[in-house]
Amino acid sequence: MIEWLKKTAKNQNLRIYNADVLKFDLKTLLIDKRRLRIVGNLPYNISTPLLFHLLNYASNIEDMIFMLQKEVVDRMIAVPATHDYGRLSVMLQYSCQIEKLFDVSPAAFYPPPKVESSVVQLRPFLSPPVSVRNREHFAHIVALAFSQRRKMLRNTLKSVLDAKDIKAAGIDPMARAETLRLEDFARLAEIN
């Protein structure tokens, strides 16, 4: 299809990029400092790594509208103390305002897939809803906390925080990551 597009759109204002999206530098798409608007039907098998890759460019993105597997969208918008709440929920909600727009039935496709889909809009925050000094450290804390969902924070975070540190952040060291709010993760990330 790429060769066909190149021939068909030869005299039009169209640029075609053929690259691995997980390695692609989105800043190469920026024109006149305008923020990007990204729309797509993401490959379901790489949707989570692709969403994390796109977060690296949040300051360059106006919004993103994607069709994804419904269960991924449910995880993106999940709230604490629910089955779907996890690392993806926390990191996306830290970076973006997320709105599930609608579901798409398998009957809308031919052949129909075995999964349901949803369309979601993400608008990166100009300023995140919680303050953290070091985004990478925050992401590391969140990843560690959810690395073993059923374990208590005092166990999952022991390589970076002890029970006393967790308690100093106003959080029960015996709590599990799935019960913490975005603000709680931010407080944990601020402990030195």
UniProtKB/TrEMBL annotation:
UniProt-listed SMART domains: rADc
> PANTHER family from the xrefs?
DIMETHYLADENOSINE TRANSFERASE, DIMETHYLADENOSINE TRANSFERASE-RELATED
User: What protein family does this chain belong to?
Assistant: Belongs to the class I-like SAM-binding methyltransferase superfamily. rRNA adenine N(6)-methyltransferase family.
Instruction: Tell me if Oxidoreductase is a UniProt keyword of this record.
Output: no
Query: What's the source species for this entry?
Result: Candidatus Thiomargarita nelsonii
| Keywords annotated in UniProt | Cytoplasm, Methyltransferase, RNA-binding, rRNA processing, S-adenosyl-L-methionine, Transferase
Record-level Gene Ontology MF annotations:
RNA binding; rRNA (adenine-N6,N6-)-dimethyltransferase activity
> What protein name does the entry list?
Dimethyladenosine transferase
Keyword S-adenosyl-L-methionine among UniProt keywords: yes
Pfam families listed in its UniProt record: RrnaAD
InterPro entries cross-referenced by the UniProt entry: KsgA/Erm, rRNA_Ade_diMease-like_C, rRNA_Ade_methylase_Trfase_N, rRNA_adenine_dimethylase, SAM-dependent_MTases_sf
UniProt-annotated binding residues for S-adenosyl-L-methionine = 1, 20, 41
Cellular component terms, GO, for this chain's entry? cytosol
NCBIfam families xref list: ksgA
Q: Where is the Ribosomal RNA adenine methylase transferase N-terminal domain?
A: 1-126
